[in-house]
Write a structure and sequence with these properties.
It is built from 16 helices and 20 strands. It is an alpha/beta fold.
Length: 498
């Protein structure tokens, strides 16, 4: 039945060569990750790259925030070559065009962020020079170097680091992300450079999906054929982070979008690798009709003697959830006006649960059904119900949990984001339906605060700044002092609203 509902078509694009790896149509969708060591620590970063390479990852991104980090990365690259470790290194650049240009001479790909490559991220651009002329003037040296060395570029737009010039025009919207990318793509085209990969990432699943689907529409209108890098940025950790990543990446893959993926968790990069490979494995099972879950049509009469475990009515859609086993007297394969679309799950291993999340998300976004049945045929229904609740939460259908936006740490982080996030999760579990951002540095940190109720931003020397509704209200606090301040603030706000 699944193959009749899911009509996967991977559109043709022009593959991009990143060192020894091709990304794009005609080549496997590949996973990648990013180091979370200090790049300046050559031994630690080299060791982590080696571990990631041995796990089967061909593409590894490394943050380059300074000249010192640049020199360290060059040494690391030479050491990799000497050890015959054939891994493709991506330099992650923010703010500094000169660092991008220097890295492009020895790495396989450079990632640049349109939100801070030309514009100041802190104030609107006031120049009378046309925007694309400013971009061209700033980017053409990098383009020429990349042409000379065969280096690829990723135009990597993040929702949390859009330039104020773009925000003034389009607001915090998927359209802002798309137009931020298109400005650069148009300039690249003018300069006859197409060795380019595009990514649009947000910490919100729905924003990520809408931005990428809109991007494909706009690329098609211009007849641009670029590979797409997928991910839900700052997805967090644990169950919530995995479900967010599975939803955002899995739904887009089934929609035919995506040529390389990165799972962004506030955990060790090897965990990201495991989760990314799981998504790709499950995705391949779905499109080749080897999956475990089934999309079915259920006759209403098959449910007449069953009591739902749960009914959720939201956004003009109904989700009825049953503990249910197939009755062989009924056919579940044909669709007619009396039948209701459903998902049937009869295993609770990790791959099946991942598939279940992707399929539920896909049905919500792709198909216009007012009612979806969820039929659970496993002993532990509570586990499935929790996954359903998280899935509907992150699809903005039925909000009920605290949401923690926390970045995967990199060389720029000034705090231990994973440990701080775990402490804040524990301290705030008594509250309900809050959005709290925990960010390691200023690249996406301030931008992610705008949509959060509260936030913590690393401000150097293991200190944090506390935010409320996008505004900093207490700066440079020690970690424990900052957490206590945050909890007291939330409790005070809750008491005011009683």
């Amino acid at each position: 039945m699944n193959e009749n509902i899911i009509k996967y078509i991977r559109p043709k694009n022009t593959p991009v060569k990143v060192g020894s790896t091709y990304i794009g149509y005609g080549h496997p969708i590949v996973a990648q990750t990013m180091t979370n060591t200090k790049t300046e620590d050559i031994d630690a970063t080299f060791k982590q790259i080696t571990e990631l390479y041995e796990s089967g990852i061909e593409l590894i991104r490394v943050s380059v925030p300074s000249e010192k980090a640049l020199k360290a990365l060059y040494e690391i690259k030479q050491k990799l070559i000497k050890k015959r470790i054939n891994v493709n290194i991506i330099a992650d650049i923010h703010f500094n065009a000169v660092l991008a240009e220097k890295c492009a001479t020895f790495v396989e790909k450079v990632r640049i962020n349109p939100g801070n490559y030309v514009d100041s991220p802190n104030k609107a651009h006031k120049s009378n020079i046309p925007d694309k002329t400013l971009i061209e003037n700033k980017i053409k040296t990098l383009i020429n170097i990349c042409k000379q060395h065969g280096t690829a570029i990723r135009i990597g737009v993040n929702f949390g680091s859009l330039s104020w010039r773009i925000i003034e025009k389009y607001g915090y919207t998927p359209e802002a992300m798309v137009n931020s990318a298109l400005e650069f793509i148009d300039v690249f085209e003018k300069l006859n450079f197409t060795n380019t990969i595009i990514s649009l990432k947000a910490s919100d699943v729905v924003t990520t999906i809408k931005a990428n689907t809109l991007l494909i529409e706009q690329l098609n209108k211009r007849e641009y054929k670029y590979p797409i890098h997928l991910g839900v940025t700052e997805a967090g950790l644990d169950t919530e982070g995995r479900i967010k990543s599975v939803l955002g990446i899995g739904i887009l893959l089934l929609l035919g979008i995506g040529d390389t993926i990165r799972v962004s968790l506030s955990e060790h990069p090897l965990v990201e690798v495991i989760e990314a490979k799981k998504i790709l494995n499950v995705f391949n099972n779905i499109i080749n009709n080897r999956g475990t879950c089934k999309i079915i049509y259920v006759p209403e009469e098959a449910l007449k003697n069953s009591t739902p475990l749960k009914i959720i009515n939201k956004n003009n859609r109904s989700f009825r959830i049953y503990s249910f086993s197939f009755n062989k007297n009924f056919s579940f394969e044909s669709n007619n006006s009396k039948n209701i679309l459903g998902i049937y799950i009869n295993k609770d291993d990790e791959n099946t649960l991942t598939e279940f999340i992707i399929l539920l998300g896909y049905l919500f976004f792709k198909l216009d059904f007012t009612e979806i049945l969820i039929l659970i045929d496993v002993p532990n229904t509570e586990k499935i119900l929790e996954i359903i609740d998280y899935t509907l939460h992150f699809l903005n259908i039925d909000k009920k949990f605290n949401e923690y936006i926390s970045c995967p740490t990199c060389s720029r982080s000034t705090i231990d984001v994973e440990q701080l996030t775990r402490k804040i999760k524990l301290a705030t579990k008594k509250f309900n339906n809050l959005k709290i951002a925990i960010m390691g540095c200023i690249v996406n940190g301030p931008g992610e605060m705008h949509d959060a109720d509260y936030g913590c931003l690393g401000s150097g020397n293991n200190k944090i700044t506390i935010y409320k509704q996008g505004k900093p209200i207490a700066k440079n606090l020690e970690i424990n002092e900052g957490i206590n301040f945050l909890i007291n603030l939330i409790e005070h706000e809750n008491n005011k609203n009683l």
